[in-house]
Design brief:
The chain has 271 residues and is α+β, with helices and mostly antiparallel strands. It contains 5 helices and 13 strands. The chain is elongated. It binds a DNA duplex (16 and 16 nucleotides) through loops.
DNA sequence: CACTCTACCTGTGCGC
DNA sequence: TGCGCACAGGTAGAGT
C-alpha cells in the first residue's frame, strides 16, 4: 500500500537507480488497459509521447510527476497515483506484459517503464498543468513546517484519524502512517483536533515527521506477512492483539470512518 | 463544515 | 476440495 515513504522510494529508485529513467527517450507506448488513464482533464493522446525524454521526477504527497521534454515542444507532465496496489518499475523492453500490466512505456537502451496494478485503482494523467490535478492538496507531510501544521490544526474540530487521512490537510499520509504517527504521538485516533493542547499539537507534528523520515530511510514499511516495501517496523498497524512494542499492552483495533484503526490503549489514552 | 456512505477493483483468507 | 463472502484501502462524489 504505497503511501508517502513508498512513493518516495519509487522516486529515488527511478531517478537515482541504475538504470535511471532520467534522460531516456520514449520510443512507444502500450496502453494495455486504457482505463488507467484518468479522463480529467481530457484531451491528451499518450501516443504523442514518442520522442519525449524524462528530464526530472518529483513527488507531492502520493502523486508522482515525470517531466517529459522534447526539443522545441511544450513540456508535458506524466502524473501517476499508485493508489492501493500500483507498481512502477523499469524492466528490459523484452519483458513480457503480465496479467496486471496496465501500461508500458518503451524506452531507449532496451528498457521499458512498467505500470502494473492488480486492482486497477491506480491512475495516470498527461497534462501541461500538473497543479490542476493536485489543486486543493495540503502541504507535503514530510516537509510541512511546525508553524504551518499548527495553524492548519487550529482551523477546525475533527477526529484525528480522518484528519490525518485528509490529503487537503496534509498530503501523503495513508492508513498505515496515520496509525503509526498517532501511536508515536501518544494520541488516541478519536481525539478531536480542536481539543489538542499546544504540546500535543507539537508532538503530533514531530511524530509525523519522524515516522515518515524513518520510513523513507528504511525504504518503506514492512507489514508482517502482508506487504514488504522496505524495513520500517510498525508498532500498531495490522497488529491487533499483539503486544505494544513500548508497553506490552495488546494492540486494539476499531473502525473509524470505515477504516481499520489500530492503537495502544495504554500509550494512547482517550481524553 | 464535519461526517457518512457508496463506488471503484481484485487477491486473500476465512468459515462452512 | 470448493464455494461464498467479508475484507483490505485512496479518492471522488453524493448525501445527511
Amino acid at each position: 500500500m504505497p503511501e508517502l515513504p513508498e512513493v518516495e522510494s519509487v522516486v529515488r529508485s527511478l531517478r537515482d537507480g541504475k538504470p535511471s529513467l532520467i534522460g531516456l527517450r520514449i520510443r512507444s507506448l502500450d496502453l494495455v488497459w486504457p482505463g488507467v488513464v484518468s479522463q480529467s482533464p481530457p484531451g491528451f493522446d499518450l501516443a504523442r509521447l514518442a520522442g519525449y525524454c524524462c528530464s526530472s521526477i518529483a513527488r507531492l504527497g502520493k502523486y508522482l510527476f515525470f517531466s517529459l521534454d522534447c526539443a522545441g515542444e511544450e513540456t508535458y507532465v506524466l502524473v501517476v497515483h499508485l493508489r492501493m496496489t500500483g507498481r512502477l518499475f523499469l524492466v528490459p523492453d523484452s519483458a513480457a506484459i503480465e496479467r496486471h500490466t496496465r501500461m508500458a512505456l518503451f524506452l531507449e537502451h532496451g528498457l521499458a517503464l512498467r505500470f502494473d496494478d492488480p486492482r486497477k485503482f491506480g491512475r495516470i494523467w498527461l497534462t501541461v498543468d500538473p497543479a490542476s490535478i493536485t489543486d486543493g492538496m495540503g502541504p507535503d507531510a514530510l516537509n510541512v513546517a511546525e508553524d504551518e501544521f499548527i495553524a492548519r490544526l487550529e482551523g477546525g474540530r475533527r477526529q484525528l484519524k480522518p484528519l490525518l487521512l485528509d490529503q487537503s490537510f496534509v498530503a501523503g499520509i495513508g492508513n498505515i502512517y496515520a496509525d503509526e504517527s498517532l501511536n508515536r504521538a501518544g494520541l488516541h485516533p478519536l481525539m478531536n483536533s480542536g481539543d489538542l493542547l499546544p504540546d500535543e499539537r507539537q508532538r503530533l507534528h514531530a511524530a509525523i515527521r519522524s515516522v515518515l523520515n524513518e520510513a523513507v530511510a528504511a525504504g518503506g514499511a514492512n507489514i508482517d506477512g502482508v506487504f514488504k516495501a522496505g524495513n520500517f517496523v510498525v508498532n500498531v498497524y495490522g497488529r491487533e492483539g499483539a503486544p505494544c512494542r513500548v508497553c506490552g499492552t495488546p494492540i486494539s483495533k476499531i473502525r473509524v470512518g470505515q477504516r481499520g484503526t489500530h492503537f495502544c490503549g495504554h500509550c494512547q489514552p482517550l481524553r
